[in-house]
Amino acid sequence: MNPLSTASAAVSTSLLEDFSLEMTGKDVPKLEEARHSIPQGTRINVTFLGNENLELRLEASRAVKRLGFVPVPHISARRLGSQAEFEEFLARLRADGTCANVFTVGGDPTRPEGPYEDSLALIETGLLREYGVRHISVSGYPEGHPDIAGDALWSALREKSASIAAQELDGSVITQFGFDVDPVLAWLEQVRAEGITLPVRIGVPGPAGVRRLMSYATRFGVGTSASIAKKYGLSITNLMGTAGPDKFLRALADGYDPARHGDIKIHFYTFGGLRATSEWIAQFRKDNLV
To answer: Is the pTM of this model over 0.85?
Structure first.
């Protein structure tokens, strides 16, 4: 690993002091395997996928809590078939003691399966607060969204931020992952210019195979031009290789200005696995201690 400047190393490692991770409902055995390389109290998001049922999602959140981490269950607005289904999920989370932190997202379906069009609709029901939620995370898209206009994204983020504040809840933004720091920093500046003060967790892919990273990038509309790939450390001529976010984190540390960009942390998408990601983070921090 190339040496960092003292200042850059300090900022890089400080950004990782309170990182968060992501897992699916099926990843409980992988979490068990990775548990000793993840700091106690780490926030771990549990996704809300269409091919996983209520019991699987609840069991995953219980496992996160049992192992000493903070569960952040996802709630996908357009996957909920009814208000009753929404309330059942919240009630079960509350009964398990895993409801304090949630992440609300619109979700993949083109058409809602029930009454909720987007995550703002979930927040504005007031049901999250009623069932004991105290912190709501919402999505951010530094490179835009393939199916949503830019103006609509900004309007939604402003409205979600305002609704969270009006209900006297804590909140944060978790961004889609990307390979280029420049649009992330520019987006953060605009977030603050819009008067949105929520802390932001910058989405970063954990170490994974290049082919897998490129596949996810295509799916989510993330830029992967030759110049961006080179900047990140991806070899688009060697899809059998692997890549980690070393260069991205260094560039983020170099460009980060708290006065302009506000409070930021890192959220890891564990495309290469929980254990590989958590061990990579521990090694990166060890290598860059100052």
So the answer is: yes
